[in-house]
Amino acid sequence: MAAQEIDNSTTWGKELWDQFDNIATHTQKGIDFIERFGGFIRDRSAIEVEYALKLRRLVKNYQPKKSKEDEENEFSSLIAFKNVLKEVADLAGQREVVAENLQNQVLQGILLLAKNLREERKKALNQGASLTQSLHTQIGTLDRAKRSYEKAFREAEKAIESYHKADADFHLSRADVEKQRVNMNIRNSQSEDAKSEYANQLQITNKQQQQHYQIALPEVFNRLQELDEKRTRGMKEFIKRSADVEYEVSPIIAHCLEGIVKAADSINEKDDSMIVIEKYQSGFQPPGDIPFEDLSKPDPDAANNSQTHNSSTGLNHMTGKGTTKDKLKKRVGIFGIFTGNKEDFSDLPPTQRRKKLTAKVQELQQKVAQEQAASDGLMKMKGVYEANSMLGDPRTVEEQLNESVNRLDRLRHELLRYQKLLEQANNQSFIQHSPQSNRVIQNGQRSSRHSNGSSNHENSHEDNGEDHPDDAGSLSSSSASPESGLGTSHTSLPGSGQGSTNEQPMNEEFYEADTPLGTCRALYPFDATSEGSIPMSEGEELQVIEVDQGDGWTRVRRFSSKGWEEGFVPTSYIECTLYA
Fold first, then answer.
1. Could you give the angle at which helices 269-280 and 76-101 cross, rounded to 10 degrees?
2. How far apart are CA 482 and CA 459, in angstroms?
3. Average pLDDT taken over every residue of the chain
4. Longest Cα pair distance anywhere in the chain, in angstroms?
5. 134 φ, ψ (degrees, to nearest 5)
6. Is 556 helix (H, G, I), strand (E, B) or coil?
7. How far apart are CA 523 and CA 307, in angstroms?
8. How would you write 557-579 as a 3-class SS string?
9. Tell me, what's the pLDDT at 474?
10. Phi, psi dihedral angles at 291 (to 5 degrees)
11. According to the model, what pLDDT value does residue 359 have?
12. E strand or H helix that includes residue 519
């Protein structure tokens, strides 16, 4: 209570009764200050908006590009980064909330308070100025009354003195003396009137001055004090409110930060390593040791190959270095024809092919289920129309139902085909080797070797200046896989170079040196429509003379009524069993 009384006694009206100008200046500076604080809040809100905008632009610029393959095999680090971007976007949203609340709850309040303070201060100062002017006017009236009294008093004194002189002068007549006495009485009366007016004005002035400095002006000063304290309290409340704006979003910001930490904790380097394996694993076995070739010992296979090559150097279908440029066709041409057919994913390594086939089977199963549901719906609709013709004409549904049934049959047929391909890919009994395991470096050029150890001796012939494609995109150039890629080898019979090899019989004796790598059975019928391929019927047994080099095609041969036929068939259409 004592402190409150002290606070009440220390007022501007009492303590600063004579500081009207300083109080006016102080209150003006206070209002200017709170308006400056409002400018600070406005600029801060603009910074928050800009910060949120830049955060959103940052998230947009660093958003990973979407791809179907990445969605299937997303790394935990990538998923975590996407979650981090999402949390940063949420942080940007909270900064926008902060900016909006600062604008609506703080800045608007500051501007309104400053406006009210200016208006109330103006009224108070006008009232104070009016009171001061009134007091100054009264003091001026008092000064005039005093000066009139002083003048009348001096004239009265002078008249009295003149009267006494005239009364003492015996030379003056009684009329002159009487005149001086009348004048004295008039001056004395005027002096008394002036004195009374002065006293009256003095009383009025003192009363007004007392009223001015003890009541009227202190009320104005106290009102200005209240305005200044109101401004100060407003400053305090607005600062707290600006902090409350931050407090209100802090739980959400904390949740965003927890989300970022959670995203970081979700990263698993082992899982990412496994994804890399699943994404790029080919399923091939590493290549075995390269056998030593003792050139000092005679190679019967090489002799047979050389004899066969020499016996056919005059034929246009041969692929030796001595053939003409027009007739020399490389196996890469075969790939240019066959690699366009990738519906069965035969151009992919075994593991990747199984993954693609599995995904295709799942996709087709989903399509079959959707189409089946649509067909069932049409059947129900048709039944409803047949039961009640008022609802619709069943013939309008008949055409849609037939189309749905046809689509469903096609999807089921395609699903069965890919299921067989997947089953074949999962049940292959032989071990596939990488194409690199069948290649050795010989005389600075790549060549392919069969299990019997024979190699392509044609590479030792002089090159005619032709460019030879890399073996990564072509079949091997061994004795059983000539560079032409047309399915003919240098062991073909003379006269067999006029088209695809499936039309030319070949002498069996020339294959004695080319031991087959294994056998294969045709899972599906295949019509040879491209040069270099041979047809086969389902269940047919063939010999494997060159395994798939990674291009989806296997080189085989078979014996028919026309003799031996050699060419390429799709690897996915056959089931191979390689010799140990």
1. 120
2. 11
3. 76
4. 193
5. -60, -40
6. strand
7. 37
8. EEEECCEEEEEEEEHHHEEEEEC
9. 36
10. -70, 150
11. 85
12. strand 518-522
418 vs 427: CA distance, rounded Å: 14
pLDDT in tens, 352-391: 778 888 888 988 999 899 988 888 888 888 787 778 777 7
Q: Residue 140: pLDDT band by 50, 70, 90 thresholds?
A: very high
Dist CA 244 CA 240 (whole Å): 6
Output the six-digit token pair for 576. Answer: 């191979």
CA 21/CA 38 separation, integer angstroms: 26
Report the distance separating Cα 49 and Cα 61, nearest Å.
Answer: 18
User: What are the pLDDT digits (tens) for 394-439?
Assistant: 777 788 888 888 888 889 888 898 888 888 877 764 444 444 444 3
Residue 395, token pair as written in the block: 């013939």
401 with 378: CB under 8 angstroms? yes
Would the pTM of this model clear 0.90, i.e. be above it?
no
DSSP annotation of 435 reads G
**Of 552, 546, 483, residue with least CA distance to 515:** 546
Question: 10 Å Cβ neighbour count for 38?
Answer: 20
Whether the CB-CB separation of 64 and 140 falls below 8 Å is answered with no
Q: What is the mean pLDDT of residues 38-51?
A: 95
For residue 106, the 8-state DSSP code is I
Q: Which of 551, 552, 554 is nearest to 576 (CA)?
A: 554
Q: pLDDT (tens digit, 9 = 90+) per residue, 170-218? A: 887 888 888 888 988 998 999 999 999 999 999 999 999 999 888 998 9
Length of the chain, in residues:
580
Give the count of beta carbons closer than 10 Å to the beta carbon of residue 497.
20
Q: Cα separation of 45 and 254, whole Å?
A: 21
* Percentage of the chain exceeding pLDDT 70: 74
CA distance 455 to 292: 12
Burial group, residue 82, by CB count within 10 angstroms (0-12, 13-18, 19+): middle
* Residue 526, beta-bridge partner list: 536
Residue 446 CB neighbour total at 10 angstroms: 18
